[in-house]
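User: We ran a pulldown and think these components assemble together. Before we commit to crystallization trials, I'd like a predicted model of the whole complex to look at. Sequences follow.
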Amino acid sequence: MDQALISQVRGFNRIVTQRVGALNDRFLARDRSLGEARLLWEIGAEGRDVRYLRALLELDSGYLSRLLRSLEAAGLVTVGPKQSDKRVRIARLTPSGSAERAVLDERSDELAASLLAPLNAGQRARLVAAMAEVERLLTAAMVEVAPIDPGHPDAQHCLHAYFSELDRRFDAGFDPALSIPADLEELRPPAGLFLVASLRADPIGCGGLKFRGKEPAEIKRMWVAESARGLGVGRRLLSELEDCAAEYGARAVRLETNRALAEAISLYRSAGYIEVAPFNDEPYAHHWFEKQITSAPT
Amino acid sequence: MDQALISQVRGFNRIVTQRVGALNDRFLARDRSLGEARLLWEIGAEGRDVRYLRALLELDSGYLSRLLRSLEAAGLVTVGPKQSDKRVRIARLTPSGSAERAVLDERSDELAASLLAPLNAGQRARLVAAMAEVERLLTAAMVEVAPIDPGHPDAQHCLHAYFSELDRRFDAGFDPALSIPADLEELRPPAGLFLVASLRADPIGCGGLKFRGKEPAEIKRMWVAESARGLGVGRRLLSELEDCAAEYGARAVRLETNRALAEAISLYRSAGYIEVAPFNDEPYAHHWFEKQITSAPT
DNA sequence: TCGAATCTCTGACTATAGTCAGAAAATGGA
DNA sequence: TCCATTTTCTGACTATAGTCAGAGATTCGA
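Assistant: Here's a predicted model for the assembly, 596 residues in total across the polymer chains.
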């Protein structure tokens, strides 16, 4: 990788860990420890599953449990069982926990204001614009794409979101019973494959492959959460699906799509997909695309 | 301050402490602890006074001493007395300490590369450009401007740098003996004032005022270090000098300058200075400027 | 309905990062 | 010379941030 890019990133890292990172921790930790403050923050107004918190903060389950006991003893949170699954426990803020969190919120505002304070209006506007760009691109870089069983809760979450979006966007709604099905079995090795893109603990996109022997592999269920659009997640999923298909031995991939999905269609075109004659009788499809792939070394 | 700006800064802080801050620490700490790694890094190739390290890293003296003992025991540093003051001790890297530091350097490169790795070429270029902007503006926000005695070492450093730059840039060089003098006494309250801009511990710019009773106050010795140009330090010094003059009761400020100092001249013009007839016989001056000031509340 | 898996918790442990008081050596100014 | 100050060091302490093994409750799938 280009050394000039690396040097610039290092310069940025130095300034930012000094000027933002160190301060951030000190601002967030009030009387309580940083770990407790972070936890209090992440529990949020709605409450959160303990297991979700564990994934989000990447904490050891024993350690997290102890932190929760300590916040509970301080009267800031209550932890109770989840109705739908009594193994899972939910942490919620008490009124005084919410008050404490509001203080953290205020401190965070103060820190942000202190970063902007020495600058004039023009500089502030430029700094904020550049920060937005850095945030967006670093977020994009944090997205992880991994193969997962299509029956896994994260995969199911994506599939439900996908179907409900289709139902919302298609002119006449969407009924999976009328569409060509893709059973979980078909999206599971060795018949197929399912990729999920996640940001921190949240699934934000998916895409499946059905292998067809000598025929081109079929791409199914491509979806990106609204909250994650503009990060290049779709393009990344598509390219990883192509790599997987190539690895499996396919020499082309193909897919069909509906005219309502304009941004998807333009993604396919810009990724080198060529419109072809219908290769199936999917009733919801208006466009069929195909792309030749070569298993180039990464 | 605008809440939209604050929110954006907060979003940035969140991502950056997570993605850069936390990783930075983990990358820096190899087998040794983060404290030791940071210390090893800051001792640097040249060696450093222990008391300087204490100020830089803001460590307790007992804690720092223990860290140094531990690095010494590992054969990475030696600590010896300073010749000029035997109370002070100097820490230096041994060859194997230098080798270890080189590894840290490499890790820092790797971290930078890992931030860029998931992105495509276009995204990388945009991220690095935005990072450069953020770095520049956060650096600008770290600059502190304060009044200081013109005899203080930092002030003297600036004045020497100023004169040597004039000598370099003026067509016929610069000899202070031929110019209208500004004795230290004239730049010291109550006759005048001297401001120094600093970035972390280093002086990077200065500017003086001579008060003239009812007459406009005179701005003298405006200088910004080459390394700090483009941060808006000149504009900030100028505006703080104007504020000081207004506070003292002046209703205008004026200054003279040489045609070789093109960027200074354009700064004066854009800050609202109007070219006027010569008000003194400074032999090195080609332009004389004046600005009416109003003591507006900040 | 049984066994495997999931989720949370407790107990026992370790490493890191500090804080504080006070002692010893060297320096600087009256 | 004497005494206050600076600088560093040691000993004794605490808090934070974990890690790991295993137990108990619950759920899920065959």
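Residues 51 and 88 of chain A are 7 Å apart (CA to CA). That may be worth checking against your pulldown data before setting up trials.

User: Thanks, that helps.
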